[in-house]
Design brief:
By secondary structure, the protein is an alpha/beta fold. The chain has 5 helices and 14 strands. Helix content is 18%, strand content 28%. β7 and β8 form a beta hairpin.
Length: 259
């Protein structure tokens, strides 16, 4: 059974190795794949976007263990999400909210309350080791998710500005800034009937951005707009960093205007 790991733990601390040890001690045959341990520390929006974009490409039955957990040890719930036949485990802090709202899915969320699938002693600061890793291992052995705990009716969803259109304008937000500084908005390419004339980000003065199909169609340092590989309106600086140049990050309001 495939178990993936997504965390903000980095690559020098022993935390990821510890979780792998817990999983393998319960199921030595588990197949563990690292998705990333470079989620920006405690960045729930980054984690949510990452999972929402990556998870749909995995096969049915995959177990995704996701730990970005600034509220560890608090009253926040630990949850299991059954999404299109895949299993996601993580804190109920919004990191799974992008999948909850994805079209075409009817997710079932359960609160992890059955302690027989946990480690006997649970730390206040490392639920990845003591709750999520052992639960993932038991799931990989074939237990029914219904055994993990009751249905959790109101999972936390991150606050977002929905992409909406009115008149000759689209309004949305930057949902993700990648390592190149590209601004990935939540304005869907498939809903845009024509290309925008003016673009403003984070309250900046509207400006005309050259439209390109690929980055190579513009020169170094040019600010451009295009469609991202996952189907959203994107703003980029060729061979540069649009986020740094404009001075915005995820959550910035984006407005697209037509004449």
């Amino acid at each position: 059974m495939l178990i993936t790991l997504t965390t903000d733990f980095g690559f020098t601390a022993p935390y990821v190795a510890v979780m792998k040890g817990i999983i393998l001690s319960i199921n030595p045959s588990a197949r563990i794949v690292d998705l990333t341990h470079a989620i920006r520390p405690q960045d729930l929006r980054h984690a949510s976007y990452y999972l929402t974009t990556a998870v749909p490409y995995f096969p049915v039955g995959t177990i995704h263990l996701c730990v970005v957990d600034p509220g560890v040890g608090s009253e926040r719930a630990a949850i299991h999400l059954d999404w299109c036949g895949q299993h996601l485990l993580g804190p109920d802090n919004g990191i799974l909210s992008g999948l909850l709202g994805r079209a075409g899915a009817t997710p079932v969320v359960r609160r992890l309350t059955e302690r027989r699938f946990w480690r006997p002693t649970v730390s206040d600061t490392f639920h990845g080791r003591d709750i999520f890793a052992p639960v993932a291992a038991h799931l990989s052995l074939g237990i029914d998710p219904a055994e993990l705990g009751p249905v959790h009716a109101d999972p936390v969803e991150l606050p977002t500005v929905s992409a909406v259109t009115f008149g000759k304008q689209w309004r949305g937000e930057v949902q993700f800034v990648d390592d190149f500084g590209n601004l990935i908005t939540n304005v869907p390419a498939c809903k845009m009937k024509s290309l925008p004339v003016r673009v403003s980000v984070g309250g900046s003065r509207p400006e005309v951005l050259r439209w390109v199909r690929t980055y190579s169609e513009a020169g170094p340092g040019e600010l451009v707009s295009l469609f991202s590989s996952d189907g959203y309106f994107e703003i980029a600086e060729v061979n540069g960093n649009a986020a740094r140049r404009i001075g915005v990050t995820s959550g910035a309001i984006v407005e697209l205007e037509w004449d």
